[in-house]
Amino acid sequence: MISGPAGVGKGTLVSRVHTAHPEVYVSVSVTTRFPRPGEVDGTHYHFVSDVHFDELIASDGLLEWAEVHGAARYGTPRGPVCAALDAGRPVILEIDVQGAMQVRQVMPTAVLVFIAPPTWDTLVNRLRGRGAETEEQIARRLVTARHELTLEDEFDKVIVNDELDTAVTELVEFIGL
Predict the structure, then answer these.
(1) How much is the average pLDDT of 98-114?
(2) Residue 8 has pLDDT above 70, yes or no
(3) pLDDT, greater one: 132 or 48
(4) Suppose 33 and one of 27, 43, 72, 95 were both cysteines; which one would form an S-S bond, judging by CB atoms 3.0 to 4.6 Å apart?
(5) What DSSP designation does 107 have?
């Protein structure tokens, strides 16, 4: 599992790993938030209603789920992950820190990787540089990020995403691809 604060580069890292190693199954999360410009339903996320999300919870259809940034819920569909694991494929979940802790409870052998920013200012600049969120949304994400950064010791590996190619190489080597 790949986790860390919003804006740290999780998605970019996972995308680079998947491009180099297409045999890896990358889970597509469900979310109740609205798509950002350029996001495609089923590719970036499965965008669902609150009612559908509640149905997934009730039917044990999610491996983990959480409300993130006090704004929307995110979760990992259980079925596709289990099918990929049963088929012997390596699986990457790109999830928030709360979700990673839940998966650790359900799957104690899961390997958790925390992606950290090189500095706090870098994280702030990356979030603002995305241009996808309001200042209020960024402020909420930064409050969450401060808390998430205190939990990095709960992870099996911490990778500082300072230089992208180096971080990708470190991640690939650590997960044994």
Answers:
(1) 91
(2) yes
(3) 48
(4) 72
(5) -
Number of domains in the chain: 1
Closest CA to 55 of 30, 86, 83, 84: 30
Q: What SS3 class is residue 35?
A: coil
Give the angle 150-155-158 at the CA atoms, nearest 5°: 80
Rounded to whole angstroms, the Cα distance separating 159 from 174 reads 10
pLDDT at residue 127, rounded to an integer: 85
pTM across the whole model: 0.85
Integer Cα distance of 102 and 99 in angstroms: 5
Structural domain of residue 106, as residue ranges? 2-175
Sheet containing strand 62-68, edge to edge, reads 46-47, 30-31, 72-77, 62-68
Residue keyed to tokens 């209603």: 49
- Return the pLDDT at 112: 95
pLDDT at residue 69 in the model: 65
Contact 65, 76 (CB under 8 A): yes
Cα torsion angle, 156, 13, 110, 57, sign: positive
For residue 95, give Cα distances in angstroms to 121, 136, 153.
Answer: 22, 22, 17
Q: With CA atoms as reference, report the closest residue to 155 among 105, 107, 101.
A: 101
CATH of the domain at 110: 3.40.50.300
112: left (phi over 0), alpha (psi -120 to 50) or beta: beta
